[in-house]
Specification:
It is built from 15 helices and 17 strands. It has helices at residues 25-28, 43-52, 63-67, 70-80, 104-121, 137-144, 189-194, 214-224, 236-248, 270-281, 308-335, 385-395, 409-416, 422-434, 449-452, and strands at 33-37, 56-60, 87-91, 128-131, 150-156, 166-170, 177-182, 199-202, 257-261, 291-292, 296-300, 343-345, 347-350, 361-365, 368-375, 402-407, 437-441. The longest helix has 28 residues, at 308-335.
């Protein structure tokens, strides 16, 4: 059995947040002992610990859950939250008294030989609460049936339609409803991730997004996807094919620069192209990495891979190719009222030996982690199934998550306007539905309200 070293507060301490009239006197004074059955999805139980502030939290950990290291992550996250001051104990996974928790006879034997001795050691008698939300049905039922231990039972339904969590209080003797506790609706997205990931790395956002002109250009880049020709000063339809072609070419080793002559940009004239390209070039600092002259646009092709210029050109090209879409979607989420603590970008979630994949956008809404994979376009080498696989890989073993693909209208239009591609789009929609992956075609910020309203 293990315990953290923090001293618990005085038992006369009252909760830091006002309680509803339905909440019991037990909830108004500190709970001496609070038992949780850990499972694969522990966000609700974690939030209960933060709000209820029990003196002692007892984690019931089966051998299978211990093998996933869920108990260590739960304990560490609770200890490091700076909001919890009680003691944390663990029981169930120790080799000499391991709990499997799936068959009645095995569970009952463990209760008789291990659990009762544990309660006696901790002076637990009619002064504990059992949260029966997690674990197998038979384990929670047999635990709840133990007499002389529980003051009341707590149950938290998985509520998909609310940012708040309601805890039902039940009488342990007859399961009669005693009232409810409404938990705070404020919660850290990072904490929810720490319950599932062993390590979280934050990748720096593309520095181009900090430039004040990047968002207006991102909006133009988005609008250009539905244009056949340049319109109203938006020259992306003329510029993008030239840049994309230049980026896919191979050049001689001694060639340090290439010149993209004005005639390569089709009907767009130099007097229009120059101010538009200057806006793009000005996203870089300093701007002399990419130049204009009387003949056209000059791009560097050879440079030290670890140099500053290499990083800048990489960021510039990456932003123009797709990071603009992530910046635009992030902005739309913020405009739709998503709070900072509910939104993260560019996180790498590492579990065990796996290095994990970088996530585009993560949301925490209505008690659920939402993994959002973004695609502005698909290259000729890419397949529709690629973003589907990516969002599954990112969210594997992360609890009860919601998976969403946020696609630009161009991707759907490209597949639906060609007869030979229509069946691929239909099959893609079926695959996503079968895997419970939501598709959002991001025509505007209103389309994202399906995730935030």
């Amino acid at each position: 059995l293990t315990s953290n070293k923090k001293a618990h507060p005085d038992t006369t301490h009252l909760f830091r947040r006002p309680q509803s009239p339905k909440q019991s006197e037990t909830a108004m004074s500190q709970i001496p002992h609070y038992f949780i059955i850990l499972s694969e999805h522990n966000i609700a139980e974690y939030r209960a610990c933060l709000d209820l502030q029990p003196q002692n939290v007892h984690l019931i950990v089966t051998g299978w859950i211990a093998g996933k290291n869920a108990h260590t992550r739960f304990k560490n996250t609770l200890e490091q939250s700076e909001q919890f001051n009680g003691k944390i104990h663990e029981i169930g996974f120790q080799s000499d008294s391991q709990l499997i928790g799936e068959r009645t006879e095995e569970i009952q034997m463990w209760l008789d030989t291990v659990f009762k001795a544990y309660c006696a050691e901790h002076h637990i008698a009619n002064n504990a609460i059992l949260n029966i939300t997690g674990g197998t049905k038979i384990l929670s039922q047999l635990l709840a049936a133990q007499t002389g231990i529980w003051q009341e039972l707590h149950y938290q339904a998985f509520q998909r339609d609310s940012n708040q969590i309601h805890i039902d209080r039940l009488n342990p003797g007859n399961l009669a409803f005693l009232g409810e506790i409404v938990l705070s609706d404020r919660f850290s997205l990072r904490d929810s991730l720490k319950l599932y990931a062993d390590e979280i790395k934050k990748h720096n956002p593309n520095p181009i997004a900090k430039h004040p002109d990047s968002l207006p250009l991102a909006q133009m880049r988005f609008a250009a996807q539905s244009m056949q020709q340049p319109e109203n000063g938006n020259l992306f339809p003329a510029v993008m094919p030239v840049l994309e072609n230049a980026w896919t070419q191979k050049y001689p080793k001694d060639q340090k620069e290439i010149l993209l002559e004005w005639q390569a940009f089709g009907l767009a004239q130099p007097d229009e192209l120059k101010p538009f390209l200057e806006r793009l070039i000005n996203l870089l600092d300093p701007q002399d990495r990419i130049r204009l002259d009387e003949k056209g646009l000059i791009l560097p092709t050879k440079y030290n891979k670890n140099s500053q210029i290499a990083r800048q050109i990489h960021d510039w090209r990456k932003w123009i190719s797709g990071d603009w879409f992530e910046q635009l979607i992030y902005t739309w989420f913020k405009e739709n009222g998503v709070k900072d603590e509910e939104l993260e970008t560019g996180l790498q979630l590492i579990q065990g030996e796996s290095q994990g994949n970088e996530t585009d956008i993560l949301l925490f809404r209505k008690n659920q982690l939402i993994f959002c994979e973004l695609k502005s376009d698909l290259s000729s080498e890419s397949k529709l199934a690629d973003p589907l696989r990516q969002v599954i890989d990112q969210s594997l073993n992360m609890g009860k998550v919601r998976r969403v693909l946020i696609l630009s209208p161009k991707i759907q239009n490209d597949y639906q306007k060609e007869e030979r591609k229509k069946p691929q789009w239909t099959e893609f929609e079926r695959n996503c539905a079968a895997k419970n992956i939501q598709i959002i075609i991001a025509c505007d910020k209103e389309a994202l309200k399906a995730l935030t309203s």
